[in-house]
Structures are given as structure tokens and as C-alpha cells.
Amino acid sequence: MANEVIARVVIVGASLAGWSVARSLRSAGFGGAIDLIGDEPHRPYDRPPLSKAYLAGDLDLDGISLLVPDEDVPVTWHLGVPAVSLRDRTVALADGTSITGDAVVIATGTSPRSLPAAAGLRGVHTLRSTDDADALRAAFVPGARVVVIGAGFIGSEVASTASKLGASVTVLDAAAEPMAHVFGPSMAAVVTSLHGLNGVSLLTGVSVAGLSSADGAVSGVVLADGRELPADVVVVGIGVAPAVSWLADSGVALDNGVVVDAAGRTSVPGVWACGDVARYPSVRGGGLIRVEHWTHAREHGAAVASGLLGTPVEYDPVPYVWSEQYGVMIQFAGFVRPGDSVEVVDGDPGEHRFVATYRRDGRLVAVLGARIPRTFVRLRRELAAA
Questions:
Q1: What is the pLDDT confidence band of residue 1, given thresholds at 50, 70 and 90?
Q2: β-bridge partners, 172
Q3: Which neighbouring-strand residues pair with 281?
Q4: Listed residue (359, 285, 277, 288) closest to 317, CA to CA
Q5: Where do the Reductase C-terminal domain residues begin and end (predicted)?
Q6: Whole-number Cα distances in Å, 13 to 28, 118, 138
Q7: Residue 2 pLDDT > 80
Q8: 3-state class of 347 per DSSP?
């Protein structure tokens, strides 16, 4: 593809990663055709607020739009019609049409995992789209009994917002130490303590055996130990899966996502992938990794655009994620492994105002911070330069 003239780029996925490809192509002067395909009817919007400000009703759809006023990014939109298959560089859509490009970019992201026991039950929700957030906001009335299954970023943010809206919230997690795989056990305990400090119950080391219901609506969550937690609303936040089912017969190599090289190229010539759906080689991460964070989606999309224009990028940044819970902004960069040493270098974790560093064999490998942005930013820069 390096010497082939690209006159038409077909991007499958109209969220941040796909939109980043389109914007980056146009800002670099690409004058060819760009087709942007999305399964939702909306033009690209920001997803992080879906569990926070949008869910709380503080922002509307216009307020989370990724389109910048007065910015000219000419594309042909194909919205509300998902892609169903890919053959070579031809994308077939659910409405029977197909689009062929000189290059195809897969940016379909992920889909929330669901509970089989929840099939068809009213009151059970996942969160991925504005429609999902709208339904949750309507359900989070004062006094509503809400059970959130999963104490990861999304589950914790939803619990925080539900509590803010006046619901009575309980969070469940199968792990004895939720988020320890991200922050390490000691600092994970600091972050998850925010739940209890804000009147939200956190039950750890528990597994869900099933859901109880009445008249087709959920009425409770049954735990493996026999306890039943009454629930008017259940939010399932047990992770996501790469949205790759439409690629089953494409010839594109799949392994927990779309496998790509350091520039974003898949196993099929002319087909690229970026964002949450892509699994790329990382020296920092110790092998093939897939990252599900906002900053990665934006930066990976820009890197793939560079490759499409003939200047491939060896993409391997330091992952960065932020989360807002109960009014506390938590920022994290890097990779943590068991055995890494942790040191609080600024502030006090007990006040949820601190910065902690992680080192491996004396080398800085990660930084965690809350409410001391200056120190965090300085150490994040040091980490990126390492």
C-alpha cells in the first residue's frame, strides 16, 4: 500500500477512533473521498460523558458532539446502518448496499458484555450509546434501588452518577480487590474506597447466580451464596468485547480484537484497524495489547491516518486513562505488574488528593494521581520519555 495511490478511504466505525482518522486525513490535506459508516444514527460523539455528565443530564447530545463548529471535514455519512461483512476492500452494509475503497479502516470499537440471565428482562441495562444513557437516566429516580454489577471504570462512574441522582446504589464485583489489575492492590483500595465514603455499598468477592423478576421486570440480584439484593434497576458493567463478528469471513486475523502491526495494518492488504478494536504490538506492554481508553482511540486513529498517507508510525505510546467518581478526578498512565513498587510522592491518599509512582527494577512504569494535576502531568511526561 505504501506506493499505491489512495483515492477513497472507507472507515467502519463513526466514533472517536474513526472520526480521528477522518479528521487527521483532512488536516493533512487528503483530498480523496472518505466514507464514514456508523451503526448509530448520530454523528460522532464523545462516549466518556455517557456515564457522567450526559447521564446526569448536565450535557445534551450537542454538548458531547465530536464535531467542532466551523471545522470543515468533508465525509460521506452512512449512519444507522451497520456493516455486516468485509471482503477484500468492500464493505457490505445491512441495507444491502456495499462500498469499496482503496483502503478500509476498521474502527468498530467494542460492545458491552451482557448477562444471559438478563435476556428480555426490563430494568436491566448496559451502557454504550446515548440511547442506553437516556434509558438509565430515566430509571435513576430518587429512591430507586440500583445494583451495579462490576466495579471497573464504567460501573464505578455509573454508580457515582446514580447516587448523585438520588438512587440507592450497591456495587458488586467478583474480584476480592476490584481494579487491582490496573492500579495494584494497595492503590486500588484507595480508589474503590470512594464508594463507601459516598454512601454506596461495595460488595467484593461475590458472584451473581441469577436475577429474580416479577411481571417481566427485574426485581433482584441473586448471589452465589444465596443472598438476594432487591433491585429496581440493574446495570451490567462486566467489561466489553471487540465488535468483530461482522469480520468472521473477511480473512482479517482476529485474536481478542483485530490483530494489527505497529502501523495499524491488518493481515489483509489495504485494510487497517485502530482504537478499541485493534490489538497491536507494544514493547511497553510486553506483547500484543488492546487498549480501551479515549486517548488511545484518538491517537491511534491519527497514527493510522499517517500510515494511509504513506508515513507509517511505529505506534507504542504510554496508555492514559482518566475517571471521575464522586467528584474526584482520577488519572492513570502506564502499565502495572505484580511486584511493582508503589510510592506516594505527593499528597495524601486518605484525602483522595495524591500522586503515586510505580517502579520496576528502579524504572518508572506508571503514575496514578487524584486532584494534583501538576505533579501528575510532570511524571506522566517523564514516563513517556522513558
A1: very low
A2: 149, 203
A3: 288
A4: 285
A5: 320-384
A6: 21, 27, 28
A7: no
A8: strand
**pTM, to two decimals:** 0.96
What would the pLDDT profile of 168-218 be if each residue is shown by its tens digit? 999 999 999 999 999 999 999 999 999 999 999 999 999 999 999 999 999
Domains of the chain, earliest start first: 8-111+241-308 (3.50.50.60), 114-238 (3.50.50.60), 327-385 (3.30.390.30)
The angle at the Cα of 351, spanning 345 to 357, to the nearest 5 degrees, equals: 25
Strands 287-289 and 341-348: unpaired
Helices (H), 165-291: 180-183, 185-197
* Owner of C-alpha cell 456495587: 171
**Category of 184 on φ-ψ map: left (φ > 0), alpha (ψ -120 to 50) or beta:** left
Report residue 55 as a C-alpha cell. 447521564
Cell matching residue 167: 438512587
Section 47-60 average pLDDT: 98
To which residue does cell 480487590 refer?
Answer: 177
Is the dihedral angle over the CA atoms 148, 149, 152, 154 positive or is it negative? negative
CA distance 62 to 59: 8
DSSP helix/strand/coil, 315: coil
Rg of the chain, C-alpha, whole Å: 22
Instruction: Give the strand pairing for 363-370 and 328-334.
Output: antiparallel
Nearest to 368 by CA among 335, 330, 339, 337: 330
Question: Following CA atoms 195, 201, 202, 205 in sequence, which dihedral angle do they give, to the nearest 10 degrees?
Answer: 170
Describe the chain by its helix, strand, coil percentages, rounded to 5. 25, 35, 40
Which pLDDT value is given to residue 3?
A: 54
Q: How many CB atoms lie within 10 A of CB 306?
A: 19
Of 316, 321, 324, 341, give the one whose Cα is nearest residue 332: 321
